[in-house]
Amino acid sequence: MRFLLSCCLLAIALTLVVSPSTAQSSLPSIAATESAAASVTLTLTFPSAGVDYSIYQAEGDARLYVRVAGSNLPSYKLSPTDLRLVFTVANDPSNLDCVLFSVPVKRGSLPRIDRKQSDLKITFTPEPASLMSSTQTEHVPQNSDSTPRISRPVASIAGENLIPVANTAPVPAATPSAAPNPLVKAQPFDVDKKLLAFADADLAVPESPAFTVLGLTPETVVRPSSPREFASSLLNGVDRHGNFQSGVALDFAPYLTLAADEMTLGQYRSNYKLRFLSRTQFSFANTKGASDDDKSVRLGLGLRFTLWDRGDPHSDDLLMDCFTKVGGALFNLPIPSILPPDQLPANTSAADKALSTAVWEAYELKQKEFDSGKNEGYEQCRAEGRKRNWNKSSWIGAFAPSWISPTGLSKNFNWNGAGFWTSVAYGFEGVPSLEKHSQLIFHARYRSNEQVADPNNKGKFLNQDSLFLGTRLRVGNENSTASFEGSLVRSRSGDQRFDNSARYSVGLERRIADNLWFALAFGGDSGRSDGENKGFVLTSFKWGFTPKRHFDPAPSQ
């Protein structure tokens, strides 16, 4: 009993001996342990000290955001390296040109922001318990360059919904070497490096030289222009001798067909020889009489040279300027220089994969915008070019041989002479109103040894030499035109004397679909000595081939 009473008295005495100050001395040691816990520093190194970026936090959001333009993405580093700070990278939904670094702020940690030249340091240090209620206090740390920079706790940054803290770091006199940039600017848009088809325009398909030598073009006066890479014509109607005719013609530019996939606009525009070869047109035509008076079959070959053409869209300086303006604006798209996520090595860190994913997703979104906008802009340029070039001045020359089978049998084909002609067009350049809506054409043609039906002997043919001198006025626009022409025809059959007559016609030409044109002409002769002043009506469908324009965003194209 005495022993138990002694133990109780000893316990009470020990309790009274220990002072309150001694009990409280353990708290600073705990606080010191917390403050001494390892901090994490995220360092973002931008390409230069002048890069514009902003730092903000949405109210109620436990993340700190760094917004930077996609063309100035920084490299990053964590310190200590053995600690992990999970952060994400994504494109800014409000501005696809920007990328957001999203850094989680753990409860109880105090982020400090320091800027030095091209570096942005965000240090996360566990906040002492004694400061948990005073996070509104501003801290003014000293950087190593002795320039004061304001570092704010997260609670200070989130004043309203989004309060950006702009980069106010001064640009140093000597900019340090830039960190590797995951985006690089595309090379400037260069229209001269585009393939020739890039400037193709759906202008009216010119008359086939092979039909011209056979005298079966809807108009006598041939319109000069640069040829299409490939074209075809279907003809039906009553010819100038009163016989029904039907035929087909195929035209192509041999050198242009072979070199179209290799020749650039720069090469074409700077070299006249290439332009001359590209504009040289070869033609083949076949026609057949459809009446008892004319059962003949005619074949014609044609070779036409465009000597000069101010309406060639491939040489249109205004069209090239328009392409450059559109391409320069749309092509200012950074191309990622880092590997896509699916091509990264297996040991790539999660942060690097996130950065690659964000960069390529932003690029693909911009590329879709680019794809949807580029063709609209380029087609607008071509449409404006068509308005300018449909009636420009030009000059052509041509030669075409022909053959005829009077019976329509292939074994009876005979030489049917040849034709030589030239046409010069004047587009009224510099003349108000007329330069947009009119074109005047002068034409001269010599046709030798043409076999024509003898009006006095049914089924017989006569050799005839002819000289044509004509003028044609075209009025309209790039989609439809009306033409009025008059020609002086001086001809002689066999040993007879020359017969002088006149030929008049009215023609219509209409674009009825992409690359498809319809032509109609009707008229007649007057003043023939034999009295055979017959009328004629000829229609023709012309189809001009234009290859599909593929656009490769690679700058070398």
Task: Summarize the model shown.
It is built from 11 helices and 23 strands. With 557 residues, it is α+β, with helices and mostly antiparallel strands.
End-to-end span in angstroms? 107 Å
Class derived from helix and strand content? alpha+beta
Extract low-pLDDT stretches: 1-37, 129-183, 550-557
Q: Give the name of the CATH superfamily of the largest domain.
A: monomeric porin ompg
Report on the biggest sheet.
12 strands, antiparallel, barrel
Radius of gyration, Cα only, in angstroms?
Answer: 42 Å
Give the count of structural domains. Answer: 2
Strand order in the largest sheet: 11-12-13-14-16-17-18-19-20-21-22-23
Helical stretch count?
11
Task: Please provide the count of β strands.
Answer: 23
Oligomeric state of the chains present here = single chain
Helix content: 10-25%
Taking all residues together, what is the mean pLDDT?
Answer: 75
CATH architecture of the largest domain: Beta Barrel
Please identify the top-level CATH class of the largest domain.
Mainly Beta
Residues in β-strands, percent? 35-45%
- Looking at the structure, what is the overall shape? elongated
CATH topology of the largest domain: Porin
